[in-house]
């Protein structure tokens, strides 16, 4: 059964790596729902966060394929229950509507939105949350003249993880051919075997 999976990939920061990873998904005809890349807690190591909707078996195969890339240190996958995640959204609405309609201002406060820019012709609000939350605010603002909307890629942290830094230290202490250990618990069904 297909469901949403969150892939966490630790890599060296090399030119062309994103393209090589994207090709893996393209060849398997898997659509990337969200993609975010950023520095990790370790200097020189980047972290990709990729969201796909697929079967567990297909996700396992993709993760194994990604780990074969030279610049990839380790790849993991998790369900939404295994992570804490957020997305950021920006909403542009006419300033005169906000000024005239106290109701709109109240709604924005209910959704935890904050002002990031005010001009005479438009105001931009920002909010963070899960997709359903940011989508609800779109529906609320549509009748008031929502001009523009954009949402960021997902950022996520694994709930039961001590972080990649600990695993890298274990790896560095091991023999030269020792694979990088998992950041998951031993009983986790989502651990991908090392090759």
Report on the structure:
- This protein is an alpha+beta fold and 195 residues long.
- The protein has 2 domains: 100 residues, ACT domain (Alpha-Beta Plaits, 2-Layer Sandwich); 66 residues, 2-Layer Sandwich (Alpha-Beta Plaits).
- Helices cover 30% and strands 35% of the residues.
- A hairpin with a 5-residue loop joins strand 2 and strand 3.
- The C terminus is likely disordered.
Outline of this structure?
Helices cover 30% and strands 35% of the residues. It has six helices and nine strands. The strands form two sheets. Strands 5, 6, 7, 8 and 9 form a five-stranded antiparallel β-sheet that branches. Strands 2-3-1-4 form a four-stranded antiparallel β-sheet, with helices on one face.
| Gyration radius from CA atoms, angstroms | 20 Å
Q: What is the CATH architecture assignment of the largest domain?
A: 2-Layer Sandwich
Terminal-residue CA separation: 26 Å
| Average pLDDT number | 85
The fraction of residues assigned to DSSP E strands is 35-45%
Report the biggest beta sheet as strand number plus sense, adding barrel if it closes: 5 strands, antiparallel
**Can you give the helix content as a percent range?**
25-40%
Question: Uncertain segments of ≥5 residues (pLDDT<50)?
Answer: 183-195
Question: What is the molecular shape?
Answer: elongated
Instruction: State the CATH topology of the largest domain.
Output: Alpha-Beta Plaits
Q: What class, by secondary structure content?
A: alpha+beta
**CATH homologous superfamily heading of the largest domain:** ACT domain
Question: Class of the largest domain in CATH?
Answer: Alpha Beta
How many H/I helical runs? 6
């Amino acid at each position: 059964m297909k469901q949403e999976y969150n892939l966490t990939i630790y890599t060296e920061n090399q030119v062309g790596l994103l393209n090589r990873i994207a090709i893996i998904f393209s060849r398997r005809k898997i659509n990337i729902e969200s993609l975010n890349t950023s520095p990790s807690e370790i200097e020189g190591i980047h972290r990709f966060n990729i969201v796909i909707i697929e079967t567990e078996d297909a996700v396992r195969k993709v993760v194994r394929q990604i780990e074969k890339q030279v610049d990839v240190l380790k790849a993991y996958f998790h369900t939404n229950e295994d992570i804490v995640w957020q997305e950021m959204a920006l909403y542009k609405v006419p300033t005169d509507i906000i000024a005239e309609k106290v109701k709109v201002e109240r709604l924005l406060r209910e959704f935890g939105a904050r002002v990031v820019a005010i001009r005479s012709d438009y105001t931009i609000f920002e909010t963070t949350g899960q997709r359903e939350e940011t989508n609800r605010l779109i529906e609320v603002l549509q009748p008031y003249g929502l001009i523009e909307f954009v949402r960021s890629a997902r950022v996520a942290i694994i709930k039961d993880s001590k972080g990649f830094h600990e695993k890298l230290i274990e790896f560095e202490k091991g023999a030269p051919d020792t694979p990088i250990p998992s950041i998951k618990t031993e009983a986790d069904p989502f651990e991908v075997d090392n090759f």
